[in-house]
Specification:
Blueprint (H helix, E strand, L loop, with lengths): L6 E9 L2 E7 L10 E2 L1 E4 L6 H13 L2 E2 L3 E7 L10 E7 L2 E2 L10 E7 L1 H6 L8 H8 L2
Parallel strand pairs: 1-7
Antiparallel strand pairs: 1-2, 1-4, 2-3, 2-9, 5-8, 6-7
Length: 137
């Protein structure tokens, strides 16, 4: 069996100098009840941008317009050999109104200031704090 790292497309959704985070559902295998960015696995043959658009529509019922590639993070907390890679896109414009929970992935959505987000004790990854500081400078 060929082990490869998984690739994910994730959204840094920003409005009025705040970022949208989703609290993962309690039954999720990875990072249950933790605050996380919206996104998901890039499927075979799918571009990062297409995966981002699909995931945002599935999870929070919005369609991003003009997402901008921002950063990537390797999640060595899950696997140090072939860690998952999260590709983050800054999303400041979208269609279909305000984001809202559209499936079972997240139990709650909330907007946070930089300080509020960085103070969360249950962020999915500690590396998110540096990502947030870079994003909301």
């Amino acid at each position: 069996m060929n082990k490869r790292s998984s690739q994910y497309a994730c959204a840094l959704i920003v409005r009025d100098n705040q970022v949208l985070l989703g609290r993962r559902a309690h039954f999720r295998a990875a990072y249950p009840n933790c605050w996380d960015f919206i996104g998901g696995k890039i499927e075979t043959g799918e571009s990062k941008e297409a995966a981002l658009t699909r995931e945002l529509a599935e999870e929070i019922a919005i369609v991003p317009t003009n997402p901008i590639y921002f950063e990537k993070i390797e999640d060595k907390h899950v696997c140090t050999d072939q860690p998952p890679v999260y590709h983050f896109y800054k999303v400041t414009e979208w269609q279909n109104g305000d984001p809202h929970i559209n499936n079972h992935e997240h139990a709650h959505l909330a907007w946070f200031t930089l300080e509020q987000a960085c103070d969360l004790s249950n962020l999915a990854l500690p590396e998110y704090r540096n990502l947030l500081r870079s994003l909301l400078k």
